[in-house]
Design a protein that fits this description.
The chain has 155 residues and is an alpha/beta fold. It has a single domain, classed as Response regulator (Rossmann fold), CATH 3.40.50. 41% of the residues lie in helices and 16% in strands. The protein is built from 6 helices and 5 strands; from the N terminus they run αβαβαβαβαβα. It has a 5-stranded parallel β-sheet with strand order 2-1-3-4-5, sandwiched between helices.
């Protein structure tokens, strides 16, 4: 059996979930548990808090570098589009994979986020079993198959 890059360095994946909907945050937590993903999950409610976390400023001065960001699109203060623009403008931050995890299946949103540099765009399913399966698939892809930049550099 292959050992994932994160298992080789002996820590769970650090995931930053950026979502202003408390119900979606709870569903994501439950789906991760149900999918048996071992992650260090951090949650922020909007794009500004996301940027503070990623840049380690304010209340997030001691934040870890996430292995993966799960980014919602439509949020107060700063939306997912602006977060992607800022992440892509920063040489260090653009190494962190960003998966858009949203309810919008609008092709304009999909194309715009890919043009801004997101690594994947996933539409949240409405049924919990499907959400668990997507979460399991995301976990397998990002934490077992892909070599993440954060797994090969110090925190």
């Amino acid at each position: 059996m292959n050992v994932s890059p994160l298992e080789k360095i002996g820590r769970p994946a650090t995931v930053l979930l950026v979502d202003d909907n408390e119900d979606h945050v709870l569903l994501t937590r439950l789906a991760m548990e149900e999918a048996r993903l071992t992650v260090d999950l951090h949650v922020v409610p909007d794009g500004q808090a996301c940027m503070d976390f990623l840049q380690r400023t304010g209340a997030h001065a001691d934040a870890p570098v996430p292995d993966l960001v799960l980014l919602d699109l439509h949020m107060p203060r700063m939306d997912g589009y602006e977060v992607m623009q800022r992440v892509q403008a920063d040489a260090a931050l653009r190494l962190i994979p960003v998966v858009v995890l949203t309810t919008s299946a609008d092709i304009v949103d999909v194309q715009r986020m890919h043009a801004l540099g997101c690594n994947s765009y996933v539409v949240k399913p409405v049924n919990f079993e499907s959400f668990v399966q997507i979460t399991r698939d995301l976990g397998r892809w990002w934490f077992s198959l892909v070599v993440l930049p954060t797994a090969v550099r110090p925190q």
